[in-house]
């Protein structure tokens, strides 16, 4: 029997059938499907955003998916975290999601990281993939993922939601002029952001399930377009805000902050000079 | 002068800078971003960016939930 998952230069008959509805799209086609098959994506956080993003990426045939999450599935997650079932309660989310994705699509490879990605391990993971989705649930992780992606020059698709509000951001760090998360939400690197900015989480503010599902699915859409070279943002960084009560979207352009300690490296084009890589590695995850 | 902030209009003295908006809204700007006419303004430029009558501002806080 041919091992179909390792053949990245062609599609099997089963894969042609499985992906037939997207293969019809002129923007995709067979070459686009092979691009997806060859793509490696890291998803940080397998909660509400991560569930929706992971299911979409796996179903679309993204070939290598790395899933990082230190937490176990809880009963209160099942209202919105669509990758999990009642029987998954107590199981690590990265492991449970990986099992779900493998059942969904046997043609893809999934790497399980049942831990909080930090420091060197995060940098190694970012270096090993083509693109990163930030689906995490705390600010310290978000600032660290931003810094690692900026240093590793990997595109970052960041999503967030609480209550009825959502935020979607794409930072294409393959471009030397990309703005970053720190430009948008500047924060003193000497402080722990989750302690200093008590902005609340899904646990404290509540969350309407379709909000995280919507934002996570759109993160997957952005990721697929970046893999296919279909980024309509042409390298500009945008923040898109979604109000689930009024169904209104707001699109805001994000310019690089020349004083940004992460990406505003004033005159130097060397990524090594992009701020201090050590600053954020000292954060303790105050998480949930 | 009148400026638009999110869904409401507020009155500020002519020549006010961006930080005056937070004073008017009685908000501590920690974790906030601000956009003027569709473009996010880097925080380092807040103290020396003067607003103009009719400016359309979006003021919002970072969201971390996932």
TrEMBL record, chain A:
InterPro entries, sorted: ThiF/MoeB/HesA, ThiF_NAD_FAD-bd, Ubiquitin-activating_enz
Biased composition (Polar residues): 266-278
Boundaries of every THIF-type NAD/FAD binding fold domain copy: 19-262
Region (Disordered): 265-288
Basic and acidic residues composition bias: residue spans: 279-288
Highest rank taxon of the organism: Bacteria
UniProt-recorded name of the protein: HesA/MoeB/ThiF family protein
TrEMBL record, chain B:
Matching InterPro entries: Beta-grasp_dom_sf, Mopterin_synth/thiamin_S_b, Thi_S, ThiS/MoaD-like
Entry protein name: Sulfur carrier protein ThiS
Organism: Shewanella corallii
